[in-house]
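Cross-check.
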Amino acid sequence: MDPSLNETEISSIVEAGGGRFIGVLKKVPEKSEAIVLFISPKTKSTLAIPISQLTVEAVRKQLAESNAAFSTGSMAEETHCTGRLKNNESQELGLTGIGCHCGD
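Predicted model, tokenized:
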């Protein structure tokens, strides 16, 4: 996948794979590449894929694995999106401007 894709193109790939696009966590030079964040419409869980691995198939695979984890009862309780960040670590990662896009 081309890491120079714009946000509209990235969102289209995520949507075609069945996810709901949230945003892109910017790369940290010499540490990590940009990370694409999206939500599972079924479980409302937030998922991530490195931009270099972003394809429609990769989104579908990530969603299937996440949905399967929720359906096996491996999650202690049902989640509910509040649209708020839950800890300072998320803010440190630069996620302060990202709001809820899950449709709740």
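Residues 18 and 85 are 23 Å apart (CA to CA). DSSP finds three helices and three strands in the chain. Passed to J.P. for a second look.
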